[in-house]
Amino acid sequence: MNAPFALPMLAVREADLRGARDCAAIEAFLHEAAGSTPFQLPGWSRAVVRGCGQRARYLLAERGGMVAGVLPLIDIRSPVVGRSLTSVGFAVEGGIVASDPAARAALEAAGWALAQRLGTPTLELRGGEVAGEGWTRDDTTYLGFVRDLTADHDTELQAIPRKQRAEVRKAFANDLIVTVGRGDRDRAAHYRAYSESVRNLGTPVFPRALFAAMLDELGERADILTVWQGDRPVASTLSVYWGGTMYPFWGGGIREARELRANERMFYAYACHALDRGCRRLDLGRSKAGTGPAAFKKNLGYPSRPLTYWRRTLDGSPPRTVNPLDPKYARKTELWKKLPLPVANLLGPLIARGLG
């Protein structure tokens, strides 16, 4: 009779994100793992450390010296909204990715043990599933928008619902130019358009250093798409690429973008650029349910899906919240909209680097 086969012992440790060996092993695992996103890449965590000054606590499960799962955590500290251990910070998704239930459970337990050891009030996992007790499930706040791409630029235009397609055609008449790049001019244009966009929404802008770090750390997996009116950037987005999917992530436009239909032009350009890069899907990220941005994405033909976030707190108290739609932030949001842009760009990064 053959002896029963025993799996090698499972061990969880903190990865060395500055070491080439750990990072290469993690990337190789994520490349093959179902459900992985660019937000679990070591470069994402390194960029957050460089750009926002937060600390990465990247947990790695190994079995027999081989990666069996990952849990990228960012220890986010903010004097404004408190502290959390988040998988993964400054991202839409990025919870546990594991090759089997045992590895997933081990990483979940290790994440909670780390939160307890650090005294972090909130542990948040953005996506995935959890098995343990004590978690609060939130699948009503955010919606994700993703769809498969069509065959070419022309069919992408036809895939846009008729009413919004008419708006894209109006944009074509406005002599708008689309560029894609990663250089200094692209970075400056992106920050100009994006920072004004979030100021107009009443939200502090992330540090410019975060966007620079993302481009540097992710290399050819990230770029900037900008819509120009002459020499003026009117809309711009920093996107990342992973697993055949384009993720337009940090994007927005100046106030005149609406009149110029620059946002419609930019969203159509996403699809064209994604096809040119060989992508098969386009993921427009998250928007809060019931908001204008969510309706805009739906009107462009992108089906919505609830995003599930899991939170657990040390004492069972309500978890940290940074939702600007929370009534307690309403007055601050309205005041922020009225700030001169240079003032908002000076103060915003000091606050936003701790929001995550």
TrEMBL record:
Coiled-coil ranges per UniProt: none
Pfam families: Acetyltransf_6
Domain BioF2-like acetyltransferase: 165-297
NCBIfam families linked to this entry: pepcterm_femAB
Name recorded for this polypeptide: FemAB
Annotated source species: Sphingomonas spermidinifaciens
